[in-house]
Specification:
By secondary structure, this protein is mainly α. Helix content is 61%, strand content 0%. The protein contains four helices and no strands. α1 packs across α2. The chain is globular.
């Protein structure tokens, strides 16, 4: 998954403002206690980050 696709999925799922907040403010234990933005910057694969967000926010499987 490319970063642009990640951003598009985030906006579709959460809306532009909330997507930004989830990416920069929500800390995920499975991402090493980092926010999604920090995890991506640290080299965690974007797909892994997306799937952790999906688990935490109960994103339906068809939208993952």
């Amino acid at each position: 998954m490319r970063l642009q696709e990640f951003r598009s999925r985030m906006e579709r799922q959460f809306g532009a403002i909330r997507a930004q907040s989830v990416a920069s403010d929500h800390v995920f234990g499975p991402l090493g206690g980092r926010t999604p933005a920090q995890a991506i910057e640290a080299g965690v694969p974007v797909r892994t980050v997306w799937l952790e967000i999906c688990k935490e926010y109960d994103v339906p499987p068809k939208e993952r």
